[in-house]
Write a structure and sequence with these properties.
mainly alpha
């Protein structure tokens, strides 16, 4: 009888230990540092399980699978980006995955020069691949339906931080960009653009040139004013950054005659007026400064010979040539010839 008593007690203790162990697995911490988990679209439960194991988020696979089955996770696999905080337990983890409670991505769109840069920038932050973005911004039928062409479609993308879900489809992502564009180009900004004799897209293109010209914020409106004056007089903009963009080489340190003579629609030394599209995505603050361009009579500017990043502004070509020679001499002294 005493032997049976000991066996029964052992069974109770073992059962209690098992219950305690299971409880610990289910409700004890399984996340020991903040972890970001990405579940691709169309993922199966097996793929999800593999991602969880790869990120060390499962303490006991058998017990986890038991809990997952009871909570019907197998039939509720949702793609997305999930952030699990330190201290999260298995029950909370499964609840979050089952409910598709993903954490949004702060999609940053800035510092973009070429279309391939934009495609890569978007693809590096969300599930959409770069080829899909590339195809979209080259789909003449679709972008013409939005009022753009393959040159000026970049005007649609207002630099900003967009809060989106990682697995948001391309069409939904495009809707986000369109909504942000419409919000930015409100009646006030559109009226300012019109007062300059420009459309919102043209302001965007001009701002992209100004973005590449200025080094100091206190000169940005003045530089914008020079280009507004030149446009008003029908003068060629003769913007060095447009040559670099046309050549596809932004590393050029010294724009030479051979560069300015390159026949390309984006070369504003070769063609009058604005280029057909932006040469980068300008910051919204640069767009604002173009809309509020300084009212003056300057028609030229040239980097100062002290290489401070500031410019000498001139009202006539004679004075501009003097400033240009000083700057060229400074480059020669540093043996910067190209």
């Amino acid at each position: 009888m005493k032997k049976l008593k000991y066996i029964f007690l052992a069974i109770l203790l073992f059962g209690a230990f098992g219950i305690f162990y299971a409880y610990t697995i289910f409700f004890g911490p399984t996340v020991y540092q903040e972890t970001v988990l990405y579940i691709p679209s169309e993922s199966s439960y097996e793929v999800l399980l593999g991602e969880l194991k790869a990120n060390d988020l499962i303490a006991n696979e058998s017990l986890f699978s038991l809990l997952a089955e009871k909570m019907n996770l197998k039939n509720n696999v949702h793609a997305g980006r999930y952030v699990f905080e330190e201290g999260t337990n298995s029950y909370e983890l499964i609840s979050k995955l089952r409910g598709g409670m993903q954490t949004p991505v702060k999609l940053l769109i800035n510092n973009v020069n070429f279309k391939e840069d934009l495609a890569a920038k978007i693809a590096s932050q969300v599930e959409v691949d770069s080829l899909s973005v590339w195809n979209l911004i080259h789909d003449e039928e679709q972008i013409s339906a939005m009022g753009y062409n393959s040159d000026n479609v970049m005007c649609l993308f207002i630099p900003n931080t967009y809060e989106v879900y990682w697995n948001l489809g391309l069409e939904s992502l495009l809707s986000k960009f369109k909504a942000s564009h419409a919000q930015f180009w409100n009646a006030t900004r559109t009226a300012k653009a019109n007062s300059l004799g420009l459309s919102p897209n043209e302001v965007f293109v001009l701002a992209s040139i100004v973005e590449k010209e200025y080094k100091h914020l206190d000169e940005r409106k003045r530089i914008a004013g020079v280009y507004v004056n030149r446009l008003g007089l029908g003068m060629k903009l003769q913007a060095d950054p447009s040559c670099k963009f046309a050549l596809g080489d932004l590393s050029i340190k010294r724009v030479l005659t051979v560069h300015t003579e390159y026949d390309h629609p984006y070369n504003t030394y070769y063609y009058a007026g604005l280029p057909p599209g932006p040469i980068c995505l300008p910051e919204t603050s640069t767009i604002e400064d173009v809309l509020n361009a300084e009212d003056h009579n300057y028609l030229y500017f040239c980097a100062k010979e002290d290489l401070s990043g500031y410019h000498s502004f001139s009202k006539n070509y004679s004075d501009h040539l003097k400033a240009a020679r000083l700057y060229q001499a400074a480059l020669n002294k540093l043996q910067i010839y190209e």
